[in-house]
Each structure stands twice: as C-alpha cells, then as structure tokens.
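BUG: 3D viewer hangs when loading the predicted structure for this chain

Environment: internal workstation, default settings.
Expected: structure renders.
Actual: progress bar stalls at 90%.

Input used:
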Amino acid sequence: MTEPWLYADDIAAHLGVTKDTVYTWIAEKAIPASKVGRLWKFQVSEVDDWVRSGAAAEEHRHSGSQSNVSSRTYADTKTDQEE
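Structure tokens produced before the viewer hung:
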C-alpha cells in the first residue's frame, strides 16, 4: 500500500507550525513537496526525514520564521505525553 499524500494544513499541524510557514518553505524550495494540479502535497515520511536531517532547523535559522520544528516527530510527542 502506498503512503497517502497530505495537504499543507495537515503537514503544518504535523510539524506544529503555521500553514504560512509551510508555504514559505515551499517558496524557498526547502521542504519536500510535490505540486499536484494547483495543490501542494506532502508525504509524511519525506517530511519527517527532512526534519531528522536537520534541514528544517537550518531553514528556520535562514528564513527567520518563528517555528518550533526540531528533529522530534509527532510520534515522539505522543510518547512524551503518555509518560
């Protein structure tokens, strides 16, 4: 089974940033995304790999955006909440 494609607002929620931040990263060609028609689509595995590689934190420093992206994933935060 293939991984589903998600919308910008889904990825923003997954990363804990605003949709505007996601679109800024798209404009800067920073975040892995594919344009399907008029919409940008994302695969969580690619975005999580991008975050783990440190590229998200690096992009945060360059763009000056106020995001709180780190190498942690949604699954990591769920684990923290359960402890």
